[in-house]
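Our platform keeps sequence and structure together, in a single record for each protein. Because each token names a local backbone shape, the row as a whole describes the fold. One such record is reproduced below, unchanged from the form in which we store it:
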Amino acid sequence: MKRDLFMTLLTFLVLGAFSIAGCDDDNPIVETDYSSEYSEYAANDIASTMGSDNGGLNDQFTDLANLVVDSLDMAETAASDTIVISRERSGPYYNNGQWTLKLSSQASSSSLTGSWSRGYRYWYSKNTQRQKHFFQKGSGIADSIGFGLISDSCSGSYENAYRTHTLNQLQAEWACRVDSASNMIRLGSTQNYTCQSTDEVKLGQNTRVSTYTLTLSMSDIEIPIKERFIRGKYVHPRSGTITGTHVASHKMLSSTGTALWERSGIERSFEITYSYNASTQTRTVTVTVAGPISSLTKTLNIETGTVED
């Protein structure tokens, strides 16, 4: 009886061991990510992608505003508080109902160095009919603009005290409504803004190396088109939302270059909100990153491309 009981228990344990081994081989356990650090990484990568001073999304909004007011002069040199950005252009060229333009920028300062190029295609319309110019004799001022990035003409990199950024791919397309009476444009995505990048970010003695894809969809972004010339170098959207995802592979390196850990397929969804207080004339841009357990909300500086808190 004891022997039979012993053999039964032994058989159960052996079969259980094989079952567990089979589970490991056929259905590997996937590590669940609950780290708030990954949400912090996403927020900082999003801020970098938004930055004006480093050629990010808000810099592209400014290019669009320049096109609308027909005052684009890329031979000039523009200066912010500490960064001097020189710009050159190729074009614009008109062909098959649309304009193409390539803008090349170089930034040089004690806080940031870099260079980037952005290729644009755009077209003007009035009452859904295309016209060659924003203001055209006989039809008047355009009420809408189609505006897109030419992926093959978008490249660049920059470096500051803590981040080295390399753009791998960039593409997007917007539809823009022009309200010349209020000097506003309102835009939304007709093709998602997709940015693929590789960054090295210093974290104390270690370095985070991340390859990530940001996918953004924009809705009702309201941009003052003349305020840029009154208040400074860049436009500041007043309202609107951007939703998207941040999908990344992260590797942490020690000061000697040894890999401390590595994770891939880390995904975060997020929402960016623009707001404007007319009485104080203050603008706020926040991003909320949704993690597996909790959300993280940060304020963004869209000029410097950094998280403010």
